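The instructor's notes for this session suggest beginning with a concrete chain rather than abstract definitions. Hand out the sequence below and ask the class to guess, before any prediction is shown, which regions might be ordered.
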Amino acid sequence: MNILSSEIYQDFKEQGFIIAHLGVDTRVTDIVPAEASAPGTLVFVEHAKYLPAAIEAGVAAIVTTVELAETIKLANTAILVAPNVRMAMAYIRQKYADRDVYDSEWGRVHTTAVIHESVQVPDDAVIGPGVVIGARVQLGAGVVVMANSVIEFDTIIGDRTVIYPSCVISYDCHIGEDCILKAGCVIGSDGQGFAQDKYFHHHRIPQTGRVVIGNKVVIGSVTTIDRATYTETKVHDGTIIDAQCHLAHNVIIEEDCILVAQTGIAGSSHFGKRVIASGQTGVLDHVHVPDDTMLLHRAGVHSSIKESGIYAYGPAQPFKKYTKNIAIFQRLSEVWSRLKKLEKQVAELSKL
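After discussion, reveal the predicted structure:
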């Protein structure tokens, strides 16, 4: 990296991520966390406690808030003012410090890739070694498919979507634009559909629907999303799914949700918009979770939630009630001792 602070300002001022460039124009050679501040670096400072390290090191540029910018008086440091420092961090690092997925050591299309003759590979696509792409697959412009991934027949992959190594996208699934599928995720596996006879033997019910993923969706490593029984399992635009999650058949996840690692959602459940499920959340089948709900502390959702809010534990309960119950639980031994003492006193009084 070798760029002037004024060039960074010019690159981002129109989007509103950087709204002012104060002080001198400096040359930035690296982007580092505030605790690793050094000459020539750019750091992001959202809280005042991180300023001293940056000031003492004499960094080249500080991206900070309007309020903190007014307090910084440095002769040889550029101050870039951001209305949202974390948003500025996201886009500055994406532009200057991200992995370049188009810079492949294997060339544009590796010779070991197996691509059906019906598939048209865009001129700007990158296909890694060992990739298998089935019949009638549609690849959007700028798609990247890394080593040993499999895309089965009739699948659609949107523009600029990046598929990391060893992913499997089963037949007739639709992936939107600007998505990221991290290593080892499986899209469109058969859902858990079986019928039982009187002997409790299991008989497979074909799962012939599809998975539809919207735009700008991120799906974490080793996450599995099952295809629908008849229609669609659907993940809407902007949703972020962490590693090792499972979405069963017919699940619907609306826009801008966050599912943290090891969340499991059973069949035909429906999350509204902007739902956050923290790690190891478990949701039973046919459950509805409304918009703007947070599920915390290994929440176990066994029935539909009627009102948006914060819920925790299992079975999920309103967060205020949960914290009170946890406080009581931590004193359970003391409460039990007092109860036994009271019972003994009552028994003695009853003899009078």
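Then share the key points. The chain has a mean pLDDT of 94. The CA atoms of residues 277 and 295 lie 5 Å apart.
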